[in-house]
Design a protein that fits this description.
The chain is mainly alpha-helical. It is 76% helix and 0% strand. The chain has one domain: Alpha Horseshoe (Serine Threonine Protein Phosphatase 5, Tetratricopeptide repeat). The longest helix has 40 residues, at 3-42.
């Protein structure tokens, strides 16, 4: 190999290495550091400070917009979990604000679901189902509960024995007052986890309240 070819090869190797460092290390680091800063701001750094809905969206938007080949799925999952926990534990949130933040989550999560790819892909069905279940329970809106059920059912297609999906379905049916379907799911849960005392109690209560005394199928 002549000197000119060695020089070109050296330049190309250096460019490849620089690209690997930039895309494989620098951008993922920048994205993860941004996520840490975002979570610190949202949590008020332990000092009881609260942020507005717009500040929440802007903070995550900035992190999500950092172009990194690694970390986008993780940021979306962290964002969704934060929204889920907020809605599950803050029933005083106005419905319009809760719907807006849900749509914000959906904007980034639904494309991942539609793609059928991504780290821990099935988790996306669970978190969106839980978000919509919180909406339904907080605002007594059956349409939200039906949406939650759709996500749980879709998740079960990929992971038919994942307990969170079955318990989510059970919670939705109980919230809707659908005793028949709730009983069916509760019995299914007990076939997998017969020692579940809470579900055992639910089955007893539903069977006692059922007008039909036909034997279990």
């Amino acid at each position: 190999m002549d000197q000119e070819a060695k020089k070109i090869l050296g330049i190309l190797t250096a460019l490849v290495m620089a690209g690997l460092i930039y895309y494989g290390s620098y951008l993922p680091y920048e994205k993860s550091a941004s996520l840490i800063n975002t979570m610190t701001a949202i949590q008020g750094n332990g000092q009881g400070r609260e942020i507005t809905l717009q500040q929440f969206e802007d903070s995550f938007q900035n992190t999500l917009n950092i172009p990194s080949p690694i970390g986008q799925y993780e940021v979306v999952r962290q964002m969704d979990s934060t929204i889920q926990n907020t809605l599950a534990n803050a029933t005083s949130v106005p419905e319009a604000a809760a719907q807006e933040i849900t749509n914000f989550a959906l904007k980034y999560t639904q494309p991942i679901i539609d793609s059928g790819t991504g780290a821990n892909f099935v988790q996306n069905f669970l978190v969106m189902g839980s978000i919509y279940r919180s909406l339904g329970e907080n605002y007594h809106n059956v349409s939200y509960l039906d949406k939650a059920l759709q996500y749980y059912e879709e998740g079960l297609k990929y992971s038919p024995r994942r307990p969170q999906f079955l318990y989510g379905e059970l919670a939705v049916y109980l919230s809707e007052g659908d005793s028949k379907d709730a009983l069916g799911v509760a019995r299914q849960i007990l076939t997998y986890w017969p020692a579940d005392a809470n579900t055992q109690q639910i089955v007893k209560q539903l069977e006692a309240a059922s007008p039909s005394k036909s034997p279990k199928k």
